[in-house]
Design brief:
The protein has helices at 3-19, 67-70, 111-117, and strands at 38-44, 62-66, 79-84, 90-99, 107-109, 125-131. By secondary structure, it is of the alpha/beta class.
Amino acid sequence: MSPYTVLFFLFALAFTAFASPVSPVNPEGAALVEKRSRTGRGTWFNVGLGACGKTNKDSDKIIAISSNIYANGAHCDEKVKIKNTANGKTATAIVRDECPSCGSNDIDMSPSLFEELGDLDTGVLKVSWDFTD
């Protein structure tokens, strides 16, 4: 085998290793949730002391996210943009709680936040949402 063949092989091997995808990780070691729009059910709840350790009022614009996205509080205090897919209304909120009964992409909203998107009497909205910067 010629030295050029060996050199070419080593170059190709190194290039392949550097081109391999790597999952992003935050400084605490938890995998980051990719930024993408999610669609699910939006409901409302009377707030209080949330899983993030902060007490809120019903007038605060907060949400609770599903347990699998909550990831032991990795998204506490992150901003979220929410859209009611039926009427196009949008609102911004902060993650302050976990919703164990929510489906993967469902959110539970404070009453004041829910009212920005629809009527409390409706109870459930179809929403799309994503984390913002």
